[in-house]
Amino acid sequence: MSMIYDITRTVSSNLKGWAGETPFSAVRELRLEDGHSVNLTILTLSAHTGTHMDAYYHFEPDGAHPVGMPLEAYIGTCYVVTVNKRQGALTPADFAHVDLSGVKRLLIHSHISDLPDDVWTEEFPYLSVELIDWLHDLGVILIGLDSPSVDSFDSKDLSCHHALFQRGIVNLESLYLRDVPDGYYELIALPLKLDEVCGSPVRAILRQQEG
């Protein structure tokens, strides 16, 4: 039986997110102890709560909502690679230690995965347009990070988000890759079938491939 790694941050009231973002809350509308036949819960959260995908509509006015994003990008063989850079833009040089030929989905593991859910940092490794161009030329269709953004914390032009869109690459953010060895896996990280929104939380898992 193949081993499964859950690479999703736990969504709870302890989970830290971007300043000004609506925090997660769960309110029980119906309770068994009050005589109802079920517990019924109302959820409040951002489309970018915890481990999530960005729909192109997040940063492109005519971009696709989650319902229109390419599902095939979020499921299939992927490669997990650890980088040593603790903050700043990642470049192809940060991946000189690994052969990414033939990789279609790349998950980037950094020290951010060692941070607990209730800790937030503004300093993290993020993508660069140079890296996106290089990975696109290699045939990559999905890039996932354990960082909270593919751009720097203080980015205003979101150059990496736009570069991903222009090259037809999708992204995952806030993955939890602690204790996941580098190597090949099957990724399953499907977004909810949501319309008219800018992103979706995902339940991301890695399944170890046989052989």
Explain what you see.
This protein is mainly beta. It has a single domain, classed as Putative cyclase (Glucose Oxidase, domain 1, 3-Layer(bba) Sandwich). Helix content is 9%, strand content 26%. It has 2 helices and 13 strands, in the order ββββββββαβαββββ. It has helices spanning 129-138, 159-166; strands at 4-6, 25-30, 40-44, 52-54, 75-82, 88-89, 105-109, 125-126, 142-145, 170-173, 183-188, 199-201, 205-208. A 9-stranded mixed β-sheet has the order 1-13-11-5-7-9-10-4-12, with no helix packed on it. A two-stranded antiparallel ribbon has the order 2-3. The protein has a two-stranded parallel sheet with strand order 6-8. The mean pLDDT is 96.
Strand order across the largest sheet: 1-13-11-5-7-9-10-4-12
Number of domains: 1
Class per helix and strand makeup: mainly beta
H/E element order: EEEEEEEEHEHEEEE
CATH architecture: 3-Layer(bba) Sandwich
Helix content: under 10%
Q: What percent of residues are in strands?
A: 25-35%
Radius of gyration: 18 Å
CATH homolog superfamily: Putative cyclase
Biggest β-sheet: count, sense, barrel?
9 strands, mixed
* Count of runs of 4 or more consecutive helical residues: 2
Total count of strands: 13
Key phrases:
9-stranded mixed sheet; Glucose Oxidase, domain 1; 9% helix; 211 residues
Please render the helix and strand layout as text.
Blueprint: E1 4-6, E2 25-30, E3 40-44, E4 52-54, E5 75-82, E6 88-89, E7 105-109, E8 125-126, H1 129-138, E9 142-145, H2 159-166, E10 170-173, E11 183-188, E12 199-201, E13 205-208
Parallel strand pairs: 5-7, 6-8, 7-9, 9-10
Antiparallel strand pairs: 1-13, 2-3, 4-10, 4-12, 5-11, 11-13
